Amino acid sequence: MPWFVSFTLILFAPLILISWYVGRKLLSAFVTLLGWDRKKTKRAIILSYVFLHLLPISFVVLFLLGGRAATAAFTGENRLVDTLVVYPFWIGLIMNVQLFLVFLLADMPKILIRRHYRAHRDAWREKEAKFMMGAAAFVALYSLITVSVNTWGIRITEKEILLPSQFSNLDGTRIALISDTQGDGRTTPRRLTDFVERVNALQPDIILFAGDVVTSGEKYIESTAEILGKLRAPYGLYAAVGDHDIFSNQKRIVDALTMNGIQVIDDSSMVAQIEKGKLEITGITYTYRRRPNEITLARTTNGNNGAYKIMLCHQPAEPLVEHARLKGYNLFLAGHTHGGGIAFGIPGVFLVAPASFETKYLSGMYKTGELVVSVTNGLGFTLAPVRFHAPAEITLLQLKK
To answer: Is residue 383 a contact partner of residue 217, using CB atoms and an 8 Å limit?
Structure first.
């Protein structure tokens, strides 16, 4: 069974349980607070959930009937399908899981006061109903606003990186880190152009791209590479190879980037001579399908030319970060995670995203020993065409003495 069908089924199974729990809570709230007929309300909630889950249902059915070609309508090419099926599912999923977390947290104290709760059940039910209705309204509004801002906005994140004393001559050097443009039917030329213009407005000295030019297939390779070729930095544009570059057509992507003035660094190192000093950039291809062996890593990372050392790769894999630290690299740059893409929870308290089970370097800046790790959220999408608590991002790093 193809991975995308397996993923859909794996995702759908827990959603049924979450929907049952949240739907049961909402049913109780509607009936208790508004006096609605229980059977009619239950039927309406079930129909609502069927509508919100049309994407996984129709995706699996169409695949079984017509294979992968039959599911092309879900890739962003059809605006009507996106509006009526795709976006309702993902936004509904976000609201559903967020409400599940809120209701679950609210249910936990009842275990501690179970005896008191049973003695005053009727009074508690009305209070619970008011809380659940208020929580549902707040979560719906908050989710819609956050999805809108995170999905269609672009965050500029500027960070300063303290230079070791021997590289103080690089003070003021500006490095733009971008990733995961993933050109497709949703990440349109207009959005890519806006992204490029925002990067250029930051006036970076050098631009580093952590891979994933397109989402899938070959339709958008040349058009996306052409727009990325409008990026401007006096000391060059350099790219690593990403998962989707390999899934699509690595050679064609490398050729398209090269033709548009972007140098792809694939398991090799190069030195960028800038006005203030030297930057050694090591591009390592670390993806699901291809990972460097010890010989490749040793050959690629054994240079010692006195330059400020940067490792650029797609996946912020923990073993690779540790290797960079041991080899004396100063900066490790990556993308891939999309900042989690969809991260559930409460900002500032806890956030959980599927990508956090893959790596602890999810988004932002980290330090391990003397090595600084920076992971950017990127621009495009992989599975979910929306972002939640993980805004699209351009990262600007300024080296400071």
So the answer is: no
